[in-house]
Amino acid sequence: MPPLVFRRATLGSDPPGVGPNNPSNEPTNTVTDLSHIRNLSIIAHIDHGKSTLADRLLEICGAVDARDMREQYLDTMDLERERGITIKLQSVRLGWDDHVINLIDTPGHVDFGYEVSRSLAACEGVILVVDASQGIEAQTLANCYLALESDLEIVAVLNKIDLPAADPDTYAAEIESVLGIPADDILRISAKTGEGVADVLDAVVERIPPPVGDADAATQALIFDSHFDQYRGVVSSIRVFNGHLRTGAKLRFMQAGATHEAIEVGSRTPDNSPVPELGPGEVGYLIAGIKDVGEARSGETVTEASNPAEEPLDGYREPKPMVFCGLYPVEGDDFEDLRDSLLKMRLNDSSFSYEPETSGALGFGFRCGFLGLLHMEIIRERLEREFDLSLIATAPSVEYEVTTTAGVDLRVDNPADLPDPASVEEIREPMLACSIITPSDYVGTLMELCQGRRGELTRMEYLSPERVDLHYRLPLAEVVIDFFDQMKSRTQGYASLDYEQVGYVAGDLVKVEILLQGEAVDAFCTIVHREHAEEYGKKMCEKLREIIPRQQFDVPIQAAIGSKIISRQTVKAFRKDVTAKLYGGDITRKKKLLEKQKQGKKRMKSLGSVEIPSDAFIRALRLED
What we know:
By secondary structure, the chain is an alpha+beta fold. Helices cover 25% and strands 31% of the residues.
């Protein structure tokens, strides 16, 4: 492994406040010269080396001592380390030569694209990382287009050149032909060994423009992320555009209309380091003792109460949830705890939504909307870990548009809320424009998969003789369950997927209800295409027959579309031996007892109810099944 090149900041006039006179790399004052600041994000497809590159940048700039260094240093959540993915954006301030670099490490998975778009609003440029052994992937394109739409400068980097399978020349030419970035301007590095990483920092200083801001204007600062600390309240990541953000100042949160005092202002180096003030162009954090999490949401503009800005900054477009499910506490007493936990989680991740709902089978809970299936899984797991909750999640569904025979238009995200089939004129389902980049060897099997999911091929484009970009229109409902897993297994993990919603299309859709003893169980209700209805009903009935405990009477499990039964299973009754206590005597004594038992079972069947244990819902609704 070649040695890492450590080059601390060297200051003549010490403008950024980091350098040899400040060996801890902690800022001592605000940066007065905007030309010495660079704000940037690292963007890439998942697993192309963003977090590893961030680790090397921290080492080379001396922000972290060698004895404290660990892999994925900026990934602070246990969940991120276990899964090896970045879930939350993280910012850090670095010193390089006589410049201050504010770096934001972003997620790569399509479900967390909203985190990327928020971080780009605080930057003037990006480092676009591409794997030198895999080339451009779907999220590479998606994130690059986000950066171009925000008019950011792009520093392209080919990573993992140390791998035996690396082919930097081929993929540099591919980047030039697809993205228009000259091959000679693309840096070639190994974030693992540190080779070429110093050149990335030099390119950042040289190519990315400094921020623009007016130090004498009224304060305008944008909150681009927040989280709740149980001891200090809301901690907000913030980018100052104009004026100064000072410790002790009275601040006005313009959208929320609230006023708070700035208890602490500072920068992340990567630990929180308090400073007296942050000037224009700087990125840091703000603690104002806020307990109401609704007052410091992402996209909020902060200004000084004594000299407020006239207009707030452009915030963020609210993300539109694509996948919905119900979240219910296993113990009904935990409902209030779940409400508080969702409120705090919403502050940390504003891309999911929730509203209260009631289920006849599960009690009180919340209908939650997510950007995708992985997003849903992560939020549920974070709620259980960070807030010590036990939750039941219903089967995921999407939002449908429904027109009734009376001409009323409805939006339905809970299948149980779909009107009676006789009163439904038309159901429209959300469609996706999907881009699948795959080696050409797997085109046939992927086309078969998409066709089987009611997909429509719109375009096929060869990025190179070996790699193809397939464009399909697919129903969202066919993608959210296991499409991604199927795609990966059919292509040995080489294909990548990106998608965006493109409106609604009418379809032959029906609501399948699961009946227990003739009573519908809303938690198992779903909307599917008519040709898949019988298959879903059959599978769910068979699964419930295995899960539901036997009663003293037969329990019919039925799947129905309206009044039509499409599948049935029966949980057979267990028979109590009422004649065990008899001995000797006439046979009529035994017959009399059995007849009495038969009458009792008949009455129990008409009056008794089937108790479904909570773990039955968990087992029946397991996504992987």
